[in-house]
TrEMBL record:
Gene3D superfamilies: Tetratricopeptide repeat domain. The keyword Repeat applies. Keywords: Cell cycle, Cell division, Cytoplasm, Cytoskeleton, Mitosis, Nucleus, Phosphoprotein, Repeat, TPR repeat, Ubl conjugation pathway. Residues 1-100 form the Anaphase-promoting complex subunit 5 N-terminal domain. It is found in: Cytoplasm, Cytoskeleton, Spindle; Nucleus. One of its GO terms (cellular component) is anaphase-promoting complex. GO terms for biological process: anaphase-promoting complex-dependent catabolic process; cell division; positive regulation of mitotic metaphase/anaphase transition; protein K11-linked ubiquitination. This is Anaphase-promoting complex subunit 5. Pathway: Protein modification; protein ubiquitination. InterPro entries: Apc5, Apc5_dom, Apc5_N, TPR-like_helical_dom_sf. Component of the anaphase promoting complex/cyclosome (APC/C), a cell cycle-regulated E3 ubiquitin ligase that controls progression through mitosis and the G1 phase of the cell cycle. The APC/C complex acts by mediating ubiquitination and subsequent degradation of target proteins: it mainly mediates the formation of 'Lys-11'-linked polyubiquitin chains and, to a lower extent, the formation of 'Lys-48'- and 'Lys-63'-linked polyubiquitin chains. The APC/C complex catalyzes assembly of branched 'Lys-11'-/'Lys-48'-linked branched ubiquitin chains on target proteins.
Length: 689
């Protein structure tokens, strides 16, 4: 099936199954290669004798018998010049192996025995075909070429890391096309290979060549009659539209799609029209919300028996409804219906996409526990598709998304070592040149940014902003504003946040709009404009509740409680804190939990001012316990600035209660942190986070 393997590898393969036969094979090959042409002629004569006699060595109808007869027949059909060409090729094959062995022997004299043994073991374990084994100097047979193409296409889909590198694969494809320029499938694999490296020109060139060759060879017309030519043309236009859409060339994509729709309508091809409708939705959603198109596409796909397309439509519809703030229970019901379709038709890839979608939706709604559960479900699932041994089926976008969420969830809970292990695994599964590598690159940069901010190393956080912006411009601008705010560059941060707010409102990125509003409110506190911050926070709260973003709503309520504390409405602040703190403690990041407990302690101290002496002492002691909890959370994420504030607050409370020893301990720890991380002149009580 595969290309001719080197003689050394062939001998190794024979030795593994039948050791005593390997030396016989080598001797026979040596006799033919170092002898004359008549020795090869004699070999084929001996093969024919295997079938003669009362008890033949090989039965004519056995697997080996059929193979030998096929080989003898092919040999007998050769002309004299072709026989000579075969003999010289055999000699070359044997001599290449001898030269390689000679080089290995000369290297062996210079190499340590233990190193050589290690090298041999490594070679034995290296099951996938290596570049030198797969390359061929001459033309491959049709079957060999098809096997090579199907193997590489399967690897590109399921486990890109085990496929040949883009450069090596292109070299082999060019070699194939040199001997057979009209080999359409080779052009299509070249197109897939160019997509890996985001090469617009080469991918377009290869795609057009594929459909040109498909029409020229008549592969389509044989199976579909005259209809085959039109089918190739409309699917060529559709694929071209998909390619332009992938690279962000929406105008060209729309023109190609219109062409595909026109040809499909002329041919009355409903299946092609449904694919066109799906792509039309993808293009239209770049301009406006096109739910009607999508619903129509799902209904028609189900009508024409296209479960894959129908399911993808449902997934897109759910995603759109999630961003529009629909209730989670309705979305999960819709996904459950699509899951029934997947299991019924064994659509393994779509099952993975559905679970990854659920993970992302729970994350959007701020339910980290549910997101974690869905992520673990996908990672522990076995694939339904049969794949070759040694191929990881799960190197798809769904797994990249889920692993990225998992890394972020661990980082939020302060498990940075676990998060870095997950990211390391992602880097191995999805190398930097693979198509899904941008996902983990962004999450890696974001986790590093959060760690640098927690640690007060704003110069490092600032250096990471460029990398985040390159991968996601909105995230990059937001984080730049956060750094400026931390460095007390208030006016610059405010300008940046206002521009970002207008842009996010325009593109309807509600999640980022709320985050920006919270950041703007914090800028107003730091500038002692607490009354101006309140309308901004109320706007954020209204949006987060409208779009069912529970976690952001809880965070906004905490910010409102802080504003009320500053304005002196402490009892009201405590009341709304009790309402918001439960979701934060259940699903929040460790840093947010710490900030919430710190805020509770501040409110308790502020409200205790009007209490009777005994009740006041109890309230202060309760506040100290809450501060201890906050301190534990901040220590977990190494947030030194917040730790310093907690220690300062604790020292003051211990002083009020007359606990000198505890006060001195807190004061000493505060002094150590204060020397390491000097304050920027902002009053300690005047910041929530």
């Amino acid at each position: 099936q595969g290309p001719d393997m080197p003689l050394s590898r062939l001998r190794k393969a024979i030795e593994e199954s039948c050791p005593h036969l390997a030396s016989s094979v080598h001797i026979r090959l040596k006799l033919m290669a170092e002898g004359e042409l008549k020795d090869m002629e004699q070999f084929f004569d001996d093969l024919s004798d295997s079938f003669t006699g009362t008890e033949p060595e090989v039965h004519k109808t056995s697997v080996v018998g059929l193979f030998l007869r096929h080989m003898i027949l092919a040999y007998n059909k050769l002309s004299f010049s072709q026989v000579y060409k075969l003999y010289t090729a055999l000699q070359q094959y044997f001599q290449n192996d001898e030269k390689k062995n000679g080089m290995d022997e000369s290297d062996m004299e210079l190499t340590n025995t233990e190193e050589l043994e290690g090298k041999m073991e490594k070679e034995e374990l290296d099951v996938p075909l290596r570049e030198e084994e797969i390359s061929c100097s001459g033309p491959l047979s049709q079957k060999q070429a098809e096997y090579f193409l199907s193997q590489q296409a399967s690897l590109l889909k399921n486990d890109e890391t085990k496929a040949l590198t883009p450069a090596s694969l292109q070299k082999e494809l060019n070699n194939l096309l040199k001997f057979n320029p009209d080999f359409a499938e080779a052009h299509y694999l070249s197109y897939l290979n160019s997509l890996r490296v985001q090469d617009v020109f080469s991918s377009t060139h290869s795609l057009l060549h594929y459909f040109d060759r498909l029409i020229l060879t008549g592969a389509e017309s044989k199976s579909n009659g005259d209809e085959g030519y039109g089918r190739s043309l409309r699917y060529a236009a559709l694929n071209l539209a998909a390619l332009h859409c992938r690279f962000g060339h929406y105008q060209q994509a729309e023109l190609a799609l219109q062409e595909a729709i026109r040809i499909a309508q002329e041919s009355n091809d409903h299946v092609c029209l449904q694919h066109c409708l799906s792509w039309l939705y993808i293009l239209e959603q770049k301009i406006f919300d096109s739910c009607v198109l999508l619903e129509h596409s799902v209904n028609k796909s189900l009508h024409f028996g296209l479960p894959y397309l129908a399911s993808l439509g449902i997934q897109s519809l759910v995603q759109q409804r999630a961003f529009a703030g629909k209730a989670a229970n309705k979305l999960m019901d819709a996904l459950k219906d699509s899951d029934l379709l997947h299991w019924k038709h064994s659509l393994s890839e779509l099952i993975d996409i559905s679970i990854a979608q659920k993970t992302a939706i729970w994350r959007l709604y701020g339910r980290s526990t549910m997101a974690l559960q869905q992520a673990q479900t996908l990672l522990s699932m076995n694939s339904l598709e049969a794949v070759n041994v040694g191929v990881q089926q799960n190197n798809t976008e769904s797994f990249a998304v889920v692993l990225c969420h998992l890394a972020e969830l661990h980082a939020e809970q302060g498990y940075f070592a676990a998060a870095s292990e997950i990211l390391k695994h992602l880097k191995e599964r999805f190398p930097p040149n693979s198509q899904h590598a941008q996902l983990w690159m962004l999450f890696d940069q974001k986790i590093q940014f959060e760690r640098a901010m927690n640690d007060g190393r704003y110069h490092i956080a600032d250096s990471l902003v460029a990398g985040i912006t390159a991968l996601n411009s909105i995230e990059g601008v937001y984080r730049k504003a956060i750094v400026l705010k931390a460095q007390n560059q208030m006016s610059e941060a405010h300008k940046l946040l206002q521009k970002l707010l207008i842009h996010c409102q325009k593109i309807k990125n509600t999640e980022m709009v709320i985050s920006v509003l919270l950041a703007i409110a914090e800028l107003y506190w730091r500038s002692s404009c607490h009354t101006i911050a309140l309308p901004v926070l109320l706007q954020a709260l209204a949006l987060s509740r409208e779009y069912s973003l529970q976690y952001l709503a809880s965070e906004t309520v905490l910010n409102l409680a802080f504003s009320q504390l500053i304005l002196g409405i402490t009892e009201q602040a405590l009341n709304i804190l009790h309402m918001a703190i439960e979701p934060v403690l259940a699903h929040g990041a460790v840093l947010d939990k710490g900030c919430a407990m710190f805020l509770v302690a501040k409110c308790q101290v502020a409200s205790a001012a009007s209490y009777a002496p005994q009740k006041k002492i109890e309230a202060l002691e309760s506040a100290i316990l809450n501060l201890n909890e906050a301190k534990a959370y901040f220590a977990k994420v190494d947030c030194k600035e917040q730790l310093r504030d907690v220690l300062y607050f604790q020292a003051r409370l211990f002083h009020t209660l007359g606990k000198t020893q505890e006060r001195n301990k807190c004061a000493m720890l505060f002094r150590q942190l204060h020397q390491e991380l000097p304050a920027h002149g902002v009053p300690l009580i005047n910041a929530f986070k």
